[in-house]
Amino acid sequence: MKAIVTVMLKNGVLDPQGKAIGHALGTLGFAGVGEVRVGKRIELELAETDPAAARKAAEEMGRRLLANLVIESFTVEIV
Amino acid sequence: MKAIVTVMLKNGVLDPQGKAIGHALGTLGFAGVGEVRVGKRIELELAETDPAAARKAAEEMGRRLLANLVIESFTVEIV
Predict the structure, then answer these.
(1) Residue B33 is nearest to which of A36, A38, A46, comparing CB atoms?
(2) Taking the model in full, what pTM does it have?
(3) pLDDT tens digit string along A20-76?
(4) Which of A6, A13, A33, A46 to mutate to test the interface with B (most CBs of B within 10 A)?
(5) Structural domains of chain B in order of their starting residue, each with its CATH number
(6) Cβ contact, residue pair B40, A41, below 8 Å
(7) Which long-range contacts (CB under 8 A, 24 or more apart) does A65-70 make?
């Protein structure tokens, strides 16, 4: 199955990449753009066929490697 | 409203970041991990209140700034 791990900076953590995108959109003439936040989307092909086990594995991958839990949080979606 | 633009490398484009994650997961002892692809998730707060207009604006942002259409494709979700 496929696991999608989405990693975003926690609320309150400064997101300079998002700020840069917001500024660039303003420069390009896009009006009405408020806060911009940028995160990562990691798509993993897993051999596991049980959705619950796949979710558990993906959550452990998130905790141990994919997210820095000091400043980031992550969600897992199994598709 | 909020627009979520997801930018992924096109199929067939080498994804070294994904390869590195797949390798690191193997080193950590996770078995059964196949292909790993990494993309960006960009969340934009838009002043626009009409969902169709917000989608149109976000799609133009994707084309003009957020994605490199030579090697990346993007999808827009309005929430």
Answers:
(1) A46
(2) 0.94
(3) 999 999 999 999 999 999 999 999 999 999 999 999 999 999 999 999 999 999 999
(4) A33
(5) 2-78 (3.30.1280.10)
(6) yes
(7) A65/B21, A65/B24, A65/B25, A65/B28, A66/A5, A66/A7, A66/A40, A66/A42, A66/B21, A67/A5, A67/A7
